[in-house]
């Protein structure tokens, strides 16, 4: 609906300022037109001039001075901005088109259409309250005293904040909002930590950062940026790799995991990191550079053992994947989703066959594979790499585990209410889980039986004897071997110039390192 309002009338400038002595504007009329959600400030000037001895007054061609963004949900903000504009007796000069993409000054925030929404409720709030009575926290052994926001994702109707603290389930907290300059937007919201380590917050216009506090007076933790999840999900099938930590070298396991699941149809990976060697990190950074993975570092202000991050990682993956991918697998670095049906050659073939939208969790049972040694710390040559590939070296495989024996899942993230390591604890109304049949697929779990295995894990694995030699599919073996070889060589086989070329390179900076020593240092 079009609205019109008289904003400001200014006196004429002096005649000496006019470009022509026969023309003089008398008055200017400033009008705002509000069409949908954008207001235009338009200036109309009356101009008097003489023609044939007769003085004529006409309204000059209107000029758009500035656009003032507005939004129904943020009317008060828009009017406030307009009032500030009106209060000046001199309208600002029009900016050149190339500068309109930038803020007017250092205190302004860019206008973003998606970020003009205010909500006052949390979807599924009553359902979450019922779940909170059903599931009580079992993480009281942790000693966090602050919520510690880890990540935040904005959806059409809410902002989802994942926490790194896991011991404060059901605690009352406050959502605290900040604009692009990290100035607090004084419109907090009282919420609750649930499920597990999650806080749901309504939206506030202009919010770019958010944090969570236990009351309104405490010293706030650092705010974190919100990540938009407002567009059509960019992926069909993605994978979350559980937290990387520990002293076993991992470059070969990482490249095997990623390249294998890419062959299964995965197009993106969220990989969670506590610590790896510098050598392993080179490979991870290479995958970041090519857009295959996002690396999420798990860290906060409070100590815990590395393995104690697993539940928080699962929770973050669940919410990070909402409206990012239709299907998401949550598995460990030593696990592979394997299809056994002639009908479904890959995981995405199987996912494509699921036409029932209520199916939101696919539970894969496990076959364990005995792994007796650490993988190598560094790449040496093609022969070494081929012989050390996990699926070549380890094939002694157990019988299929039962449904409750450490299964893993592929989920529809937005349909799951609460996740655990081995699958959803609860689904939203009308959604259901299915167990994947043995002849369709299972998880191949490479269990290190010599090092760093929990006692109960070894006992569970051995209860599924007898073990038999069971290699992976021949075609996958062939393709995967090449993919691994290509990626490792591209990452680690650095093209070396000759000693003379290196010496010449250093002489540019007037340095002359001994050629032989330099070669040793760079290799």
Automatic annotation (TrEMBL):
Bilayer topology term: Single-pass membrane protein
Gene Ontology MF term list: glycosyltransferase activity
UniProt-listed Enzyme Commission number(s): 2.4.1.-
Biased segments, Low complexity type: 10-20
Subcellular location: Membrane
A Pfam family hit: Glyco_transf_92
Region (Disordered): 1-23
EC category name: transferase
Keywords noted in UniProt: Glycosyltransferase, Membrane, Transferase, Transmembrane, Transmembrane helix
GO CC list: cytoplasm; membrane
Transmembrane segments: none
Family assignment from sequence similarity: Belongs to the glycosyltransferase 92 family.
Name by which UniProt lists this protein: Glycosyltransferase family 92 protein
Organism: Caenorhabditis elegans
């Amino acid at each position: 609906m079009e609205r019109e309002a008289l904003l400001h009338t200014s006196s004429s400038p002096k005649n000496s300022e006019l470009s022509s002595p026969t023309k003089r504007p008398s008055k200017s009329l400033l009008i705002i037109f509000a069409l949908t959600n954008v207001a235009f400030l338009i200036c109309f000037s009356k101009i008097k001039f003489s023609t044939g001895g007769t003085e004529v007054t006409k309204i000059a061609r209107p000029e758009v001075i500035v656009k003032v963004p507005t939004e129904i949900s943020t009317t008060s903000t828009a009017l406030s901005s307009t009032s500030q504009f009106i209060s000046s007796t001199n309208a600002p000069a029009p900016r050149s088109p190339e500068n309109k993409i930038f803020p007017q000054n250092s205190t302004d925030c860019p206008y973003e259409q998606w970020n003009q929404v205010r909500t006052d409720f949390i979807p599924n709030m009553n359902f979450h309250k019922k779940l909170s009575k059903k599931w009580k926290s079992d993480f009281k052994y942790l000693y966090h005293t602050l919520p510690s926001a880890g990540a935040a994702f904005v959806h059409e109707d809410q902002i989802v904040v994942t926490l790194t603290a896991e011991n404060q389930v059901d605690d009352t907290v406050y959502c605290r909002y900040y604009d692009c300059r990290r100035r607090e937007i004084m419109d907090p919201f009282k919420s609750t930590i649930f499920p597990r380590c999650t806080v749901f917050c309504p939206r506030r216009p202009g919010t770019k950062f958010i944090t969570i506090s236990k009351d309104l007076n405490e010293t706030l933790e650092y705010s974190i940026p919100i990540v938009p999840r407002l567009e059509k999900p960019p992926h069909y099938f993605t994978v979350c790799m559980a937290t990387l930590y520990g002293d076993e070298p991992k470059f070969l396991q990482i490249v095997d995991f990623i390249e294998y699941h890419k062959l299964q149809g995965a197009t993106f990976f969220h990989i969670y990191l506590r610590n790896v060697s510098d050598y392993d990190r080179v490979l991870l950074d290479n995958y970041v550079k090519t857009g295959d993975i996002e690396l999420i570092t798990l860290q906060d202000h409070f100590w815990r053992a590395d393995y104690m991050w697993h539940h928080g990682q699962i929770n973050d993956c669940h919410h990070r994947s909402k409206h990012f991918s239709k299907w998401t697998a949550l598995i460990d670095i030593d696990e592979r989703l394997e299809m056994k049906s002639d009908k479904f050659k890959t995981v995405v073939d199987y996912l494509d066959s699921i036409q029932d939208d209520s199916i939101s969790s696919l539970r894969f049972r496990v076959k364990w594979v005995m792994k007796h040694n650490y993988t190598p710390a560094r790449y040496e040559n093609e022969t070494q790499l081929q012989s050390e590939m996990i699926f070549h070296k380890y094939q002694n495989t157990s019988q299929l585990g039962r449904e409750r024996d450490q299964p893993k899942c592929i989920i529809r993230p937005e349909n799951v209410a609460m996740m655990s390591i081995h699958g959803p604890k609860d689904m939203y109304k009308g959604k259901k889980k299915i167990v994947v049949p043995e002849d369709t697929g299972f998880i191949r779990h490479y269990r290190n039986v010599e090092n760093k295995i929990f006692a109960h894990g070894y006992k569970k694995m051995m209860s599924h004897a007898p073990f038999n030699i069971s290699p992976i599919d021949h075609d996958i073996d062939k393709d995967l071997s090449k993919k691994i070889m290509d990626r490792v060589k591209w990452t680690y086989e650095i093209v070396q110039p000759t000693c003379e070329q290196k010496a010449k390179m250093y002489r540019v900076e007037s340095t002359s390192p001994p050629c032989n020593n330099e070669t040793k240092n760079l290799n």
